[in-house]
């Protein structure tokens, strides 16, 4: 049975139908924080796809799961404890909200998708984040309703997952001959691009790449975020941030 936190987040959301528009963060600080945190978590996920592509990283299992894992690793390593926990909390809230579709409108094709079910992704990211620092994060894990039986295995799951990413990223330290993430030109006035530019700077201090990955904010016609291997580019859609506003509004 779903417990209170998850039940509160399994929201019935209308299918997004957005006009093309540049996203502007709302005045409400809590809403802005939620949207910004989830955009950051999603961006880290897409960075995972980009690294897998340009570094030719072998993936044993679903690539989407590997990208989810890197997202949690970056939350843990880039941010101080309180801020990292808020990013994880926003990420979990989004997965829980999206899980409503999986639970109420389950289609057999959902089980064949390249993504795990949203409710599975919810528990996976919470477990990994908890496992990285169980002493400091037990209360958060309880708040997010990680099953008691799962708590024991999460530190080992974190050790395996973070160790695997550390191994494949050996030799990717930044250097004068290395490339990295690059913000696409002409986006300086876009609020989402300003948010992502800070993340690009942080990541470029950690990882050097054999070729550039360009980061774009764009109107996409759908609520989405994706990595394009043909273009070596990450795109965060304005409509995705607008969709997060819908999640926030439905939670109020």
Question: Can you describe what's shown?
Answer:
The chain has 252 residues and is an alpha/beta fold. Helix content is 57%, strand content 7%. β1, α9 (191-204) and β2 (213-218) form a beta-alpha-beta unit. The radius of gyration is 18 Å and the shape is globular.
Chain-wise SSE layout:
Layout: H1 4-9, H2 29-54, H3 63-78, H4 81-104, H5 118-132, H6 134-143, H7 148-151, H8 154-168, E1 181-183, H9 191-204, E2 213-218, E3 225-228, E4 233-237, H10 238-251
Parallel strand pairs: 1-2, 2-4
Antiparallel strand pairs: 3-4
Helix pairs in contact: 2-3, 2-4, 2-9, 2-10, 3-4, 3-5, 4-5, 5-6, 5-8
Overall mean confidence score, pLDDT: 88
Global Rg: 18 Å
Shape: globular
Q: How many domains make up the coordinates?
A: 1
* Largest beta-sheet details: 4 strands, mixed
- Strands, count: 4
Report the portion of residues in β strands: 5-15%
What would you say about this model in short?
The chain is of the alpha/beta class and 252 residues long. It has 10 helices and 4 strands, in the order H-H-H-H-H-H-H-H-E-H-E-E-E-H.
Features:
globular, alpha/beta, 252 residues
């Amino acid at each position: 049975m779903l417990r209170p936190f998850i039940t509160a987040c399994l929201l019935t959301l209308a299918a997004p139908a957005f006009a093309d528009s540049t996203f502007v963060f709302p005045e409400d600080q809590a809403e802005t924080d939620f949207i910004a945190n989830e955009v950051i978590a999603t961006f880290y996920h897409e960075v995972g796809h980009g690294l897998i592509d340009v570094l030719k990283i072998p993936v044993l299992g679903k690539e989407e799961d590997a990208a989810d894992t890197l997202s949690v690793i970056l939350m843990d390593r880039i941010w101080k404890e309180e801020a990292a926990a808020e990013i994880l909390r926003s990420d979990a809230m989004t997965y829980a909200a999206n899980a409503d579709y999986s639970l109420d409108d389950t289609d057999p094709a959902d089980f064949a998708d390249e993504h795990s079910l949203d409710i599975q992704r919810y528990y996976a990211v919470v477990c990994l984040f908890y496992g990285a620092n169980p002493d400091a994060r037990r209360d958060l894990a309880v708040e997010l309703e990680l099953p008691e039986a799962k708590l024991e295995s999460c530190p080992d799951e974190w050790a395996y997952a973070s160790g695997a990413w550390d191994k494949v990223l050996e030799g990717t330290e930044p250097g004068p001959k290395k490339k990295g993430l690059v913000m696409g030109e002409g986006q300086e006035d876009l609020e989402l691009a300003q948010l992502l530019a800070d993340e690009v700077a942080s990541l470029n201090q950690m990882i050097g790449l054999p070729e550039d990955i360009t980061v774009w904010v764009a109107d996409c016609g759908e609520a989405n975020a994706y990595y394009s291997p043909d273009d070596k580019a990450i795109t965060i859609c304005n409509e995705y941030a607008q969709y997060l506003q819908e999640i926030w509004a439905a939670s109020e």
